[in-house]
Amino acid sequence: MADQLIRATAADGGIRAVGVITTRLTEEARKRHKLSYVATAALGRTMAGGLLLVSSMKRPESRINIQIQGDGPLGGLVVDAGLDGTVRGYVGNPEIELAPNADDKLDVGRAVGKNGYVYIVRDVGYGYPYSSTVQLVSGEIGDDLTHYLVSSEQTPSALVLGVFVDKEGVQAAGGLLLQILPKAATDLALIELLESRIGALSGFTPLLRASQTLPNIFEQLLGDLGLNILPETQLLQFHCGCSFERVLGGLKMFGQAELRDMIQKDSGAEAKCEFCGQTYHATKENLHELIRDLNQDEDQLSEKIGKVF
C-alpha cells in the first residue's frame, strides 16, 4: 500500500480526522540512517506525527519542524514535514538499541527519555515562523505531541502513532489524529465517546498489518457519527531538498582563508546532510572556483563603495 494521507470529518464538522500510512518512507529513513529497531520506531512515529500536524496548515509551502530533546540515549531527534507530503528527519544516536519494555514492545520512551522538551516550529510560508515548547510527558512521541496540541493549541486531540519493524525492515507505520473542533468542544458526551474508542484501539500498526485501510479504520471509529471521508488522497514520501549547489553555497561562507586551508590539507571538502545521510564531495577545483567567486564579490563591493564616496 502506498504511503498516503486522507482526511475526514464527522459529527457535522465537529470532528476532524486525519490518517497517514508511512511504511515506505519510514523504511527509507531506516536504510538511509542505518537505524536500530528502537531508533526506527522513534523517528518513524515522529515523521508520521509531523505529517499529521502539518495537515491542518493552509498555504502549500507550509512546513513544521519538530525537535525532541530528552535525557535518553537516543540523543534527540529532528523531523521536518511539509504540507506537500514530504518529510525527512534524523536521530542523534541511530545505532542505540534497548531491551523491550514491560509490554514487550520497543522501548521508545526510555530511548528518548522522560525529561526534556518538544520544540515545534510552524512555518506558514510568510512572515515569522511560530514556535512553541512543551515538556516531554513520556518520551513515547504520541503522548508528547498530544500534550503539545492540548497545551499549545488548546485543541482536544487524540494522536495514535505506530511503527512495526522486524529483521526484514519496516512492515507497517503510520498514525491517526482526531480533533474536536470548537463547534463541538462543549459536547462532553462526544469527547468521552471518542476517548473510549481511541482507548479501545490495540494500536495503529496491528490494524495496518491486518490489511485495514485508512477508510476502514475511520469507519470503525466514526462510522456512526456522520463520517464524511474527503475524496483527495495525498501521496507521501521521504524527501530532502539538499543538493550539491547548496553544499557549495554553505562552503562559500567559510571564506577564502578557510577554503585555501581545505585545499592544502584535504585537496577538497566533504559534507554530509544530517536529514537524509547524503554525502557530497567538493574537489579542489570546486573550492578554487568558490575562491574566485569570493574575489569577484569583493571587487564588486569595492567598486560600489568607491562610487558612493
Automatic annotation (TrEMBL):
Broad class of the protein's primary localization: cytoplasm
- Could you describe the post-translational modifications of this protein? Under oxidizing conditions two disulfide bonds are formed involving the reactive cysteines. Under reducing conditions zinc is bound to the reactive cysteines and the protein is inactive.
Family matches, as InterPro entries: Heat_shock_Hsp33, Heat_shock_Hsp33_C, Heat_shock_Hsp33_N
The text of the family note is: Belongs to the HSP33 family.
Name assigned to this protein:
33 kDa chaperonin
The keyword Zinc appears for this protein: yes
Q: What does the UniProt keyword field contain? A: Chaperone, Cytoplasm, Disulfide bond, Redox-active center, Zinc
Q: What is the annotated role of this protein in its UniProt record?
A: Redox regulated molecular chaperone. Protects both thermally unfolding and oxidatively damaged proteins from irreversible aggregation. Plays an important role in the bacterial defense system toward oxidative stress.
Concerning CDD domains, the annotation shows: Hsp33
Q: Which Pfam families match?
A: HSP33 (PF01430)
Q: Which gene encodes it?
A: hslO
Q: What are the disulfide bonds? A: 240-242, 273-276
Give compartment(s): Cytoplasm
